[in-house]
Design brief:
- By secondary structure, the protein is of the alpha/beta class.
- The chain is built from twelve helices and seven strands.
- It has a seven-stranded parallel β-sheet, with helices on both faces.
- Strand 4, helix 8 and strand 5 form a beta-alpha-beta unit.
- Helix 5 packs across helix 12 and helix 7 runs parallel beside helix 8.
């Protein structure tokens, strides 16, 4: 009976020790193993940078007294929404491809608003310069680089320049892409290769070139812009859909291979987003209204809607998310069954 009471008192009066291993013997080794796991989780949780999270999380598995346990409450400061740098992106170096307009430019602007340093990359040098001007207006450090993402030498040169100027690359946003209409039975090999070189091979080359620095430091984040077309075939866009499906698998492969070395990789799949790339569709009468009608939120997405998710995925707050695809389409991809005739249910 005394033993039962004693155990009950331990559970009620000292609940903070329930998850700690016993002191003697193997418990010490177990505690050390858990501490190591927390340190590794801290590096990954931080997402990109110094491993500050690992040092603060040590208190989770290494308390020996109540005073030290109370000091573990410092971790809670990491989730203080009133913190001006609550995303932990201030002074991080972010490289964005396809940054001359649309989603790329808006992403650059949003990173600048949270204090990140922006490297804008695009084969359109003038567009890149305009993007960096927008970033400078917000007081951000920035660099515009004209680069052809399909050319390995051009990408390597851009990576070298970015590292020379800022010393590191914390985040890479693969966004460069094109559309190439055509039925698969008539699409030329040249058009097929051109689209895949930009939409898929370019992502690979940039991941490789900028990822080397991340791997050397054991920390970094990759975010790739895919599309709902990766999983939804559509007419006259077979090459585009195939390229975006490739991006989705490339990201998962990078997450698998580089995750143990501190690198996270995720994709974002936009739905109907109005950008310079798709603007010609909206010039046709009635297209905007018809598109809005099939989206559950009854609205066409903006580049800002994608940029907001990019910034989150690149941040400390998404530190345990990797190998995932985040769909940002206003619910469009959930409407398939609504097109199936069902008498009596219509």
């Amino acid at each position: 009976m005394r033993r039962v009471v004693r155990c009950w008192r331990k559970l009620t009066l000292r609940p903070w020790r329930r998850d700690l291993p016993p002191k003697p013997g193997a418990g010490v080794a177990l505690r050390r193993a858990r501490l190591l796991a927390v340190e590794q989780a801290g590096r990954g949780h931080q997402g990109c940078g110094t491993g500050e999270g690992a040092r603060k999380l040590r208190w989770q598995w290494a308390p020996k007294t109540r005073s030290k346990l109370r000091r573990w409450s410092k971790v809670e400061k990491l989730v203080n929404a009133n913190d001006q740098d609550w995303l932990r992106l201030r002074d991080r170096v972010c490289v964005i491809t396809g940054a001359s307009s649309g989603i790329g430019r808006e992403t650059a602007i949003q990173f600048a608003t949270v204090g990140a340093t922006v490297v804008a990359i695009d084969r359109d040098g003038n567009g890149c310069s305009q993007t960096t001007e927008e970033v400078r207006k917000l007081g951000g450090a920035t660099l515009a680089l004209e680069c052809d993402v399909t050319d390995a030498d051009s990408v390597s040169a851009a990576a070298g320049r970015a590292l020379a100027d800022f010393g590191r690359c914390d985040m890479l946003i693969n966004n460069a892409g094109i559309l190439q209409p055509g039925r698969l039975e008539t699409l030329s090999l040249a058009d097929w290769n051109t689209l895949l070189q930009i939409n898929l091979t370019g992502y690979f080359l940039c991941s490789q070139a900028f990822g080397r620095d991340m791997l050397a430091r054991g920390s970094g984040v990759l975010v790739h812009i895919a599309s709902i077309a990766a999983g939804q075939p559509q007419g006259m866009s077979g090459a585009y859909s195939a390229s975006k499906a490739g991006v989705a698998m490339l990201s998962r492969q990078l997450a698998f291979e580089w995750g143990p070395r501190g690198i996270r990789s995720n994709t974002i799949s936009p739905g109907l987003i109005r950008t310079p790339l798709s603007e010609s569709f909206y010039q046709a009468p009635g297209v905007k209204e018809r598109r809005e009608a099939i989206v559950p939120l009854r609205a066409i997405g903006r580049p800002l809607d994608i940029a907001n998710v990019v910034v989150f995925l690149a941040s400390f707050r998404a530190g345990y998310i990797t190998g995932q695809d985040i769909v940002v389409d206003g619910g469009l991809s959930q409407t398939l069954m609504s097109y199936v005739p069902r008498p009596g249910y219509d």
